[in-house]
Amino acid sequence: MIVYDKQILNNDTLVDEANTLYKGGFISKEQKRFIKKELPIFKSQDNILVRIGFFLLGSLLFGSICGAISVLGISAERIFEEICCYIFAAVGFVGAELSAKQNFHNHGLDDAFILGALLNIGFAIGITTEGYEMVIAFFVAAGALFTFLRYLHLLSMLVFCLAVTAFLFFGMFEFGDIGKTILPFTAMIFAAVFYFLTKKLINNLKESYYYNGLLLANSFCLVLFYLSCNYLVVRELSVELLGTEVEPGKDIPFAYFFYGFTFVVPIVYLVQALKTKDRIMLWISFLAIAFSIYTVRFYYAVLPIEVALTLGGLVLFAVAYFSIKILKEKESGLTFKPDRINHSDAILNAEALVVASTFGMKPEVKPQASPMEFGGGGFSGGGSDGSF
């Protein structure tokens, strides 16, 4: 399914881990440079501004090709209008294939063709179905899942998550007012099920290439779960979708549940993040807490905004100050000391990397199949049998 050479994928993982080990002080700059020189990797762009520039260039190229096709097919008029977006989507997939064959990955040019293909799929289905949103969302989700599985395109996974959510929402709209009424609970259950499904897939993952995409989907579920029953979101959607007016002194149905959900879920996220040392969940919990405070401020202005901001800043400063004081001397667990390794998998191929840079060998190592073995005189030096 993956269009890229598996060896280049493995090499790309090794080079990323070499950069991490260099930042942690485990290998020298010369070793890192040698590893990067010896292992063929993708043509990619880590600089976001450069990547955006190539994306704009790729969009211009994609638009030029589509424009040339439009000039040739303009004489067909009505027939061409009905099939042009399908042709443009095909152009996008052909461009994505050619980019992949040239080892472009996360470069900007490939982004333009992949996202252009997905956009034209949506337009094409919209023209064919006369704007049937549910069908459009389904085919965009299917196309995004395909591009993620084949091109390992991270933005495609985000498009897939958004399209699946849109499919759920438009599907509930089909049931009329009943579907709109139970939409928050349906979205909450969907997010919870999808979260545990992606979590299970991550734990049982055999090919590490899909890890980042699954992690993105997993994090998206956390955000969707919180927003699905946030009081502000539910109340405003009730006004927008059902046309209900909340009169003074009254509230929406199940208001106490939505109030409790708005404040309990961020705390649960925070506790779970600290317990499992999940950095992404920790940041999501902070954002959820901030949005919960904004939810209250949106309806109940207890203090003037300048006073509220001042007091909030003082509280945050106090929490940060005392947290640093408590954690700065800790060497393990939750600590204020900087990580020498940004992620736990980075050390798995340390032995292969150091061997490669020391003896000039080009390793053929699978990232998840060669964990460091402690003891026995291996890399960790834990034994005394004399082996390196």
TrEMBL record:
Residues 374-388 have a biased composition (Gly residues). The keyword Heme does not apply. The keyword Nucleus does not apply. The chain crosses the membrane at residues 48-73, 79-100, 112-128, 134-152, 157-175, 181-197, 209-234, 254-271, 280-301, 307-327. Keywords: Membrane, Transmembrane, Transmembrane helix. It comes from the Bacteria. Residues 367-388 are annotated as: Disordered. This is DUF2157 domain-containing protein.
